[in-house]
Amino acid sequence: MVSGAGEMVGTSNSMDVSQPYGMIYGEGCPQGRSYFISTTEQRGRFLGASELGSHPNLGIPAVNQITHAVCSVWIAKSSSILKTTGGLVAMMTGSSSGVLTAYAMGPHPSYEGRYERGQVTAKWVLSPGVPIIGIAVDDNYSLKRHSQKRVWAVVLNALGEIFYIVDLPPKPDIPSNAKFNAEQFDELAWKTGRNVRWELLELSRRKARPDPFSRELVDGSYSPRSSSASMQLDVNQIAAETREIEKFLAFRPKHFRKLCEGWNMERDLQVDFAGDDGTGAGEAVIVIARGGGEAATASVRRYVRTASKLGSTSRPSTPGSRPTERKAHVSLFGGPTGSPSPTPGDSLPPSRSSVRVNAVADTEWRISDFTFGDRKSVEITTNALDNSNWATPTAAEDPLLGMSGSSLSSATSSPMLPHMEQPLSSIEIPGQRARYLAVGTGTGMIFVWNIRALAAQNTDVINSIPPLRVIQTESPQVSCIALTSLYLVHGGNDGLVQAWDPLASSTRPIRTLNSRFSSRARRRLVQAEASMFGVGNNYFATGAICLDPDPTNLRGMVSLGTHLRYWSYSSSAADQYNVSKRRLRHGLRGGNGGAAEGQRFNNSGRGAIRDFIEDERVELTRQQIADDKEREHLSARFGVDLLGPDIDEEQLLAYAQLLSQEAHPDEAAKQSDQTAIASSATSTSFSDAVGPSSFGLGDVSSSSSPYQTPMDDDVDDDLAEAIRLSLLGDDSPAPQIDQTPSIPIKYAKGVKPPQPSSPGAAESSRQQEMDDLEFAIQLSLAENKSRGNVEEQDEWEEFPGLAPPPVSTSQTSAKGKGKARAT
Questions:
Q1: What does the DSSP assignment read for 302-365?
Q2: 727 contacts: CB under 8 Å, gap ≥ 6
Q3: Helix crossing, 649-682 with 717-727: angle to 10°?
Q4: Is residue 11 within 8 Å of residue 131, measured between CB atoms?
Q5: Residue 505: CA count within 13 A, CB half-sphere
Q6: Are 398 and 433 contacting, i.e. CB atoms less than 8 angstroms apart?
Q7: Which one of 67, 113, 244, 789 is separated from 722 by 20 to 30 angstroms, measured CA to CA?
């Protein structure tokens, strides 16, 4: 950004980290310096502290250190680039003055022994007065790639200009016994930098503002830069060039904003150094404009390097080449139809191609724009490129293309394709060697593109590439992204970290790695966004995400404020789901506790998985209640837990057998008692003259009391129950009693005793006797009720007692209002 009216340049501090080598840090304020600390040291050092003045004859301009600020930094991530450059390029810094500086990592027995740690090795002035805001270097650069004249470094400035380099700087000849000071090393660095040339991508050249009246003294589209030794300039020309560079270094940022269009320091740079079209070219440079302002809009533009003269040059025919028919190609994963497939010569891998790019003049660049679909007013907050192991090799280094053979019996055939010919181009490979680029927005959305999608066939046409996947996260804003060829991990400013599938096999997140923070902190974040000071330092947000370069190793680390959280998953972790099946989880429960309208932070509690935990708890509670109800039902009806919940089935069977054995003698005794009582009941006689009187099964009382004569204590319960049912008017048939009465029966005058003439007559006589007995009992009950026995009425129950307690015949009185008579 530019402070005030554009007098000075100030930006956020920049930092780059390398696991094997250390960290480099750049101060984005005026008079800013670079700081480097190695992994083998406990203390670091500041870089580039020399005060070398102007030397026009040597091509060394004077740089004003007062307005100097470090806008971008880079450090090597592997030893490949160190070995290829001879240890000259291990770190790089870009300043607000447009000066690019390279530093050494220190002495090493295999590639460097002259430079100390953090020593300056090369310097270039690429865009004097315009800050360098982006640096990208190929960490996998090798001598093989250098022989193909591939790009190994790219630089971006605030006006959107892109500079790239193909040649390697040669190692300077330093005597072994020479001892140089800081100024001498700085002078040697300017000399080393002139041995190679940085090229400007012409399609990205700065655009001058319209000046129809020619009021400006200089053209806004012109800018000088450091020349190379290959141009063979004399001393006077070098001096004139240096003075012109010093003139541009003295300009303020407001001068360039007045003359040129597109000043924006909020740009990001991503480069696909492994892109390959089969002819030694195919590198892709992506410039990402974040947008968010009133005039600035978000954009993602790609520049693809292609060979310009290969289409018109003839080449010898190659055995096994494809027919010359050109047809449209459709992606295996769907999407719009791309441009026609390359010609047969273009489909050959680099090992078979007889032509490669040998000069910058043989190449041209084509532009493509990555679109956001129908989304408007997009603000990009973060971006990431797939840097996994299988995304960085070129076509010549790809195992699927490197060991291809035209014969089925070839010894170099791949074992993965034993029954077919090996693919001759990336089009025949599933996925077509795609590489992902993802950006996060301020509304919680993620856009994923394939940066190796087909480019336009004409340099004058800018084709549009739609996104492969659009992900709507639950975060209010995406703060960082990391991705590989298999999965994508996003982090939000609310602390939510989730893993997604870029190919959309599941529209929901695969795993929640960290839940969001508490609702109290979320409310404070909403208040901070509404205030005039903004959020400031959000220590709840996800700061950075790092993934394993091997996409099959599902492990990584994320920073959350001052905390670090890591994860590691393997395929064997899913074996536990084959043992037991869980109940299907119901959908999320609705409620009234959602966030208010207009508030972008939902009210989900402690984290994104709290809703799922709550649903699982409710499901377990509901299941427990259902099990308790079923257990109570079985206990009440069948008595399954009569002896306790821990008794087994064998113990229950043994207990039932014991009860059966104990009840068998009692049942036999009851049957004998019932037979004797029934025999005595049938021999009872009634007198018509006296009227209805009580009857008894034992001794007959001579008292005229309305109370019935009590039965003996040993009367069977079953017989008592039968008598009670008879009193209630039960219509069930009376028990058949076959025993002969043991008590003699007296008959009245004129009544003849029944003659046992036949079994049918005996059966009819017994039925008549039972009917008479029932009629006598009903008359006795009616008489007792008519006498007004108050006590009996007060204590009347629905089922009256059958046998009152036995009383002695000598008892003279009874309680109640009735009369008591003595014997």
A1: EEEEEESSTTTS-----TTPPPS-------TT--S--SPPPPTTTTS-TTT-S----SGGGEEE
A2: 777, 781, 800
A3: 60
A4: yes
A5: 7
A6: yes
A7: 789
Contacts (Cβ under 8 Å, ≥6 apart) of 693 = 686, 687, 780
SS3 38: strand
Q: How many CA atoms lie within 13 A of 349 on its CB side?
A: 22
> What was the pLDDT predicted at 160?
92
User: DSSP label at 699?
Assistant: P
Identify the DSSP state of 453.
S
Joined tokens for residue 812: 């003279």
Q: Among all chains, which residue has been given the structure tokens 């700087």? A: 169
Kind plus residue range of the DSSP H or E element containing 666:
helix 649-682
The rounded distance, in Å, linking the Cα atoms of 403 and 196 is: 35
List, in sequence order, the alpha helices (H) in 588-648: 610-638
* Overall size of the chain counted in residues: 823
Please tell me the distance from the alpha carbon of residue 584 to that of residue 214, in angstroms, as a whole number.
Answer: 75
Query: d(Cα 217, Cα 227) in Å, to the nearest integer?
Result: 24
Between CA 522 and CA 602 the distance in angstroms is 9
Q: How far apart are CA 339 and CA 333, in angstroms?
A: 16
Q: What is the pLDDT of residue 103?
A: 94
Tally of CA atoms within 13 A in the half-sphere of 754 that contains its CB: 15
Tokens of 328: 């449209």
pLDDT value of residue 221: 84
> pLDDT for 751-810, tens place per residue?
556 555 555 666 677 778 788 888 888 887 877 776 655 444 444 444 555 555 555 444
Instruction: Return the SS3 of 764.
Output: helix
User: What local confidence, expressed as pLDDT, does residue 547 receive?
Assistant: 93
SS3 102: strand
HSE-CB of 760 using CA atoms within 13 angstroms: 0
Cα gap 704→820, rounded to integer Å: 9
Using CA atoms, how far apart are residues 453 and 466, in angstroms rounded to an integer? 10
Alpha-carbon span 242 to 234, nearest angstrom: 12
Instruction: Determine the pLDDT at residue 406.
Output: 38
The 3-state DSSP class for residue 492 equals strand
**What tokens appear for 101 in the block?**
């500086």
Q: Residue 594 region, left (φ>0) first, then alpha (ψ -120 to 50), else beta?
A: beta
Residue 47 vs residues 55, 120, 185, 479, 630: alpha-carbon distances, Å: 21, 8, 12, 30, 78
What 455-463 contacts at long range (C-beta under 8 Å, 24+ apart), as own/partner pairs, is: 455/302, 455/304, 455/306, 455/339, 455/366, 455/368, 456/339, 456/366, 456/367, 456/368, 457/339, 457/340, 458/366, 459/364, 459/365, 459/366, 462/367, 462/368, 462/369, 463/339, 463/368, 463/369
Extract the residue ranges of the chain whose pLDDT is less than 70: 1-5, 49, 110, 112-113, 176, 293-295, 309-360, 402-428, 517-537, 571-612, 639-646, 675-716, 718, 726-763, 786-823
Strands 363-370 and 380-385: unpaired
Question: DSSP 3-state assignment of 369?
Answer: strand
Eight-class DSSP state of 775: H
Q: Please give the backbone phi and psi of residue 644, each rounded to the nearest 5 degrees, phi first.
A: 115, 160
| Residue in 46, 40, 51, 6 with CA at minimum distance from that of residue 26 | 46
> Tokens at residue 140, please?
């996998």
Would you say 469 and 436 are in contact if contact means Cβ atoms under 8 Å apart? Answer: no
- Predicted local confidence at residue 753, as pLDDT: 60
Determine the distance from the C-alpha atom of residue 670 to the mean position of all C-alpha atoms in its chain, rounded to a whole number: 76
How far is residue 755's CA from residue 762's CA, in Å, rounded to a whole number? 8
Separation CA 154–CA 271 (nearest Å): 8
